[in-house]
Amino acid sequence: MKGPIQSVEITYLIHATEDQQKVEGAIARVLAIKARPVVERLEGHFGNEILSERLHLIGEEANLAFQGIVARLPKDLKAGLLANIGAFLDEHSTFFLRLDKQQLVAGTLALGSADSVRLKVKPRLFLLKEGSAEFYARLIGGA
User: What is the C-alpha separation between 125 and 68, in angstroms, rounded?
Assistant: First the structure.
């Protein structure tokens, strides 16, 4: 049986002052991801190089990544997500989470907004027997 998650998309920026291998390695390690990101080179306002990186996981890899992320969430963060689950969902039952990139590089998970690692999680829609909030609450609370 396939898992409940259809896909997980992970996007983040790496600025010229950051070590690309260190950031990529930390994301792969903490989020338990083996895939290599697709890298797009951008230019900042002052001509500095910015790398836009994207990982698109599907199937079992997406399910394992989501389970790994949920398992590593600190209890207080998990409780906050469960208490406000609707704030992390859109009208298409997609779950969005922004993790602080610097904390992630340090090995911990914390919510972030300014310099974040963005996760976009899509469910297998046919498994949404309950509402999307209840679906994700069950997946996050049950781990």
Answer: 21
pLDDT above 70 (res 142): no
Count CB neighbours of 24 within 10 A.
20
CATH label of the domain that carries residue 54 = 3.30.1440.10
Nearest one of 46, 57, 36 to 15, comparing CA atoms: 46
Q: Are 143 and 71 in contact (CB under 8 A)?
A: yes
Q: Decide if pLDDT at 34 tops 90.
A: no
Alpha-carbon distance values, 103 to 16, 57, 60, 108, 116 (Å): 18, 22, 27, 5, 9
Q: What is the pTM of this model?
A: 0.91
Give me the number of domains the chain comprises: 1
| Residue 72 lies in domain | 5-141
